[in-house]
Amino acid sequence: MPFSFDDHSASFFDYLLQQRPDLLPGSRGLASDRPVSMPEESRGLVPAPFSHGTTVLALKYEHGVLIAGDRRATEGFQIAGRRIEKVFKVDEHSAIAIAGAAGPCLEMAKLFQTELEHYEKLEGVQLSCEGKANKLGQMVKANLPMVFQGLVVIPIYVGFDLKRAEGRIFKYDITGGRYEESDYHSIGSGGKEARNTMREHFKKNLSEEDALVLALRSLYNAAEDDVGTGGPDLVRGIYPTAKCVTASGIGEIEEERMSRVYASLIEARKREA
Amino acid sequence: MPLPYYVSPEQMMQDKAEYAKKGIAKGRSIIAMEYQDGVLLVADNPSASLYKISEIYDNIAFSGAGKYSEFENLRKAGIRHADLKGYMYSREDVTARSLANGYSQSLGTIFSQELKPLEVEILVAQVGEPGRPNEMYRISFDGSIFDERGFTASGGRAEALQVYLKDRYTSEAQTLKTALALCAAALESVTNQKLPLEGLEVATLDRTRVGRKFRRIPPAESRQILA
């Protein structure tokens, strides 16, 4: 690997684009010489943007933002994985959760992590919260050609904005459009059920515990109505993953705490049934 | 038509080396020193924002002495190289040895092929996992590379610093406090003046940290450590 001196951008994405386009998600550089043609029968059909199985969500609470996601991966009608991670720490003050085709999702998460770290090291300062959200939008936009091959990747970005001293949530569409949410959001095939639950129970300035209970309840409801979303697996001890993003950094919620919340949720359901 | 002058290769290399050495000696010095939790880097640098020491990757740091624009370019190239390698393979595959080799190649090529050699001397340090040794490489303007143990100095009065430290450095049980005090004393002795802590740029590669090991130590904290 030769050193390159002739490049002045602080973006790792741009660097790959110039030097190693073959390493970019979907090999965009290669795809441009050899345009991918869509199969005859699928022309004119835009793939449904939320056809992938997953539920990931984010909601604000008094100290910042909580972000959580289920663990299931599906391949058609088969369960491909029970322990997949869909929530990723990006840096000390932000995280993303991704819905879509698993491979490109992981690739985008890794590229985004590298992108932010690269910028921080080259420039000596971190990107602003807004800057990070915009950068992610550009990466989603760059993935658009892949969407027509059915490989959709849609993230939610949450960050703690140190300047404004508040947590923020951003959602995206397939064209990279970036929209800020004021309270909560969820995406994926079970996203609607999760959103319905949050709409009913969300309040401003929830405590961390209440926010966690609401997040897990929403995921539980999503798992009940959506085949693509995994519920808590009590036999194997697999629970959703959740992280809280606050002024003091990003923290993982331990499994033991999850299992406690789920035990009381399930107890309540039993009584109601 | 004027005849081109003949200059022997020996003469040309000697002139270039002299030119580069002069440029580097004009600048200020940097010390890297092993201590019990990793590697300490201390630079004589009055600026609080134009750094001579910086992070390259999880457990690798860089420092450059000499001409700012030149070592800044080398620093950026190193970060690109490291991030690309870590992205392509895995984070643990990024090593100081491969980086130092890359720098050595680039500096060597520039020294022999370009009219003007780079007036820089750089250090690449890597903190080892617990139980594994640290690595420190010093690469000079012509691409020659030195594998250093214990401590090393570059830029400015590097030779005087080496002599000063050789007599006083003990490899066993250097704490952060003793290492920092020794580095500060060494820099003061070669510049023959009192250096305020604000004039020192201090950073560590601390193996007790989780994830990225590089950390800058601001003057206020240096004062606490030395107290």
Question: Could you characterize the architecture of this molecule?
Answer:
The complex is a heterodimer of chains A (273) and B (227). By secondary structure, chain A is α+β, with helices and mostly antiparallel strands. Chain A has a single domain (48-272), classed as Glutamine Phosphoribosylpyrophosphate, subunit 1, domain 1 (4-Layer Sandwich). Helix content of chain A is 37%, strand content 24%. Chain A has 8 helices and 12 strands. Chain A has helices at 12-19, 28-33, 102-123, 129-142, 144-147, 191-201, 208-225, 255-272, and strands at residues 56-61, 64-69, 73-75, 78-81, 87-91, 94-100, 153-161, 166-172, 178-181, 184-187, 241-246, 249-252. Mean pLDDT of chain A is 88; it is low at 29-36 and 42-51. Chain B is α+β, with helices and mostly antiparallel strands and 227 residues long. Chain B has a single domain (26-226), classed as Aminohydrolase, N-terminal nucleophile (Ntn) domain (Glutamine Phosphoribosylpyrophosphate, subunit 1, domain 1), CATH 3.60.20. Chain B has 6 helices and 10 strands; from the N terminus they run H-E-E-E-E-H-H-E-E-E-E-H-H-E-E-H. A 5-stranded antiparallel sheet of chain B has the order 8-1-2-9-10. Chain B has a 5-stranded antiparallel sheet with strand order 3-4-5-6-7. In chain B, a hairpin with a 5-residue loop joins strand 6 (135-139) and strand 7. Chain B is globular. The mean pLDDT of chain B is 92. The chains are: A alpha+beta (273), B alpha+beta (227). Chain A binds chain B through residues 1, 3-5, 7, 12, 15-16, 19-20, 23, 110-111, 114, 117-118, 121-122, 124, and chain B through 49, 51, 54-56, 73-74, 76-81, 83-88, 102-103, 105-106.
